[in-house]
Design a protein that fits this description.
elongated; mainly alpha
Length: 131
Amino acid sequence: MEHQDWKPIFLTRKKTESDKKREGRYKTVRNNSGGKNSNNKGNVKYSEDGAIAPPKKVTSHLKKQLQKARLDKKLSQKELATKCNITETIIKSYENGTAVPNGSIMNKMSKVLGVNLSNKPKKESKKKLKK
């Protein structure tokens, strides 16, 4: 049996561009200058120390505002989702505060609920604060 070659044979294929990207040899750069649907999704915000800043989440003000408006209309999360033509998990993520605010979804919910939803609480006027 000494005439047999027992060394392992490795079959490999030539690396493609996607393989090289996965290995980190290339940096992905998005061009958002063209097309109608460029919502600057490729722009990444960096903090001062060079780390990528986390995306802004739904504020507690918006969570409460959304829940109150939905309950005033006596709608369940599922009913609101079907009226807005979105999934129930999106409504849940907005009410839990884990969603990243999306303008089109907020507009749909505002129209269905009949309330102006905003991610920022209204600032009280200076006259009210002095009293």
